Amino acid sequence: MNKTLFRTRIKFCGFTRPGDVRLACELGADAIGFVFAPESPRRVAPEEARAMRHALAPLVDAVALFMDNPVDEVREVVKQVRPSLLQFHGSEDDAFCRGFGVPYVKAIPMGTELAEQHPANIHMRYPSAAGFLFDSHSVGTQGGSGEVFDWSRIPAGVQKPFMLAGGLHAGNIFDAIIGTLPWGVDVSSGIESEPGLKDGEKMRRFVEEVRRADCHQLE
Ligand SMILES: O=C(O)c1ccccc1N[C@@H]1O[C@H](COP(=O)(O)O)[C@@H](O)[C@H]1O
Question: Which residue intervals define the domain N-(5'phosphoribosyl) anthranilate isomerase (PRAI) in the entry (predicted)?
Fold first, then answer.
């Protein structure tokens, strides 16, 4: 396959400062994620995310990330932040995820039984999902940990766009893309100096490596 006609989408996640959002847009991010997961060190209040949303450049999406948040919290975020995509990392079911009138992606924790299922079962469990995100965490643990999983475990034959996440950084993203050909990649810790604080040079190198993989001719 010739990858030069394909552009891997880039989502940078876990922002807490409007200046970092501006820089990420300038560097070429397609989507910016705001984390509302209760236990996350990157968690922001809806008002903070709303302020950062105003720092977004045109044609860059705002994504709101949740992990078993109460329905009222999700509603409040949707109302205040107006995200174009929701990302669910907990045990939410399809009815919950689709109930906000905003497209959603469901994170599939690669440390759980869900990851072992046939893709048809994953689709049946989340028929309304716009896509899936394969991440390294297991039951009871959070994403955003910087841990990598074995990419060969991604179920073959997923019919919807999928994103790859979990411990990605400028040093491994080229191999990750060539090895899995994801629709998009999602990174949090790999572009930070500390949780929630983004590092401009790490973001720049990450984008550069994604573009290098996109231009790579596959055998
Ligand atoms: O970023 C967080 O704090 C977070 C909290 C709870 C669930 C998911 C979270 N982040 C997402 O986890 C993956 C992997 O992140 P990392 O690159 O390994 O740090 C990614 O999808 C983040 O958006």
Answer: 11-208
User: What CATH number was assigned to the domain covering residues 3-214?
Assistant: 3.20.20.70
Q: What is the pTM of this model?
A: 0.94
**What ipTM was predicted for this assembly?**
0.98
Pocket test residue of 32, 34, 35, 168 for ligand 1, highest count of atoms within 8 A of CB: 35
Q: How far is the CA of 144 from the centre of ligand 1 (A)?
A: 3
- Amino acid sitting at position 6: F
Annotated domain spans of the chain: 3-214
Other beta carbons within 10 Å of 218: 10
DSSP 118-161: -HHHHHHH-TT-SEEEEES--TT--S-S-----GGGSPTT--S-
* Band of pLDDT at residue 109, cut at 50, 70 and 90: confident
**pLDDT at 141 exceeding the cut of 80:** no
At 53 the pLDDT is 97
108 CB neighbour count, 10 Å cutoff: 24
CA of 60 to the centre of ligand 1 (A): 19
Q: What DSSP designation does 19 have? A: H
What is the position in ligand 1's atom list of the atom closest to the CA of 107?
21
- The amino acid at 47: E
The C-alpha atoms of residue 74 and residue 70 are separated, in whole angstroms, by 7
